[in-house]
Amino acid sequence: MSFARVALAVTTAMHELAVREAVPLLTVADFEAMRQANTRFAAAVETGDAEAAIRADEEFHAITVTASGNAALRTVLEQFTPPLLRAARLRFSSPSGHDAVVQHSHMIERGESGDVDAAVAATRAHWQELAPLLGRPLAGPATT
User: Fold this and answer.
1) What's the domain range around 45?
2) What DSSP string describes 2-49?
3) Are 45 and 96 in contact (CB under 8 A)?
C-alpha cells in the first residue's frame, strides 16, 4: 500500500474520531462557523481556486478536531494530511469539488441533529472521495 493510501486511511480514521467525540460538544456557534467555512469553500470551488478551497476545507474540519479536545488527533493529522494535498487540489479544482460542498452540508446537518453515527458516516464518505485520485499520474505525455 502506498504511503498516500496509508495517509488517507489514517486521516479518515482521525476525522471520524474527531466527529464522534465533537458532535455532542458542538455549539450553535460551531455549526455556524462550519457553515461559513463551507460557504468560503463553495466560493473557492466555484472559481477554481484550489488553494483557497483547501484553506476553507481545513478551517471546516478543524472545528471538529478542536471541539473534540483530543490533542493527539491534531498531531496525527499534521503528519498524515500533507500527502493528501495533491489529491485535494485535483478534487477541488474539478467538478467533484462541488460534491464536497454537499458532503460538508450533510456533515453539518447530521451533526446538528445529534446523529453521531450518521455524521461519522458522512465524514468517512467525504474523505474516501480522495481515494481514486491517489497515485493518479501527472498529466502529460506517457513515457516508455
Assistant:
1) 3-130
2) -HHHHHHHHHHHHHHHHHHHHGGG--HHHHHHHHHHHHHHHHHHHHT-
3) no
Q: Which three cell numbers stand for residue 82?
A: 500533507
Q: Could you give the CA distance from residue 88 to residue 133 in angstroms, rounded to a whole number?
A: 8
Its pTM stands at: 0.90
Query: Would you say residue 26 lies in a domain?
Result: yes
Residue 84: inside a domain: yes
Cα dihedral 102/36/80/137 (nearest 10)? 50
First to last CA, the chain: 24
* pLDDT, one tens digit for every residue, the chain (144 residues): 789 999 999 999 999 999 999 999 999 999 999 999 999 999 999 999 999 999 999 999 999 999 999 999 999 999 999 999 989 998 998 888 899 999 999 999 999 999 999 999 999 999 999 999 986 543 433 333
| CA 105 to centroid of chain Cα atoms | 12
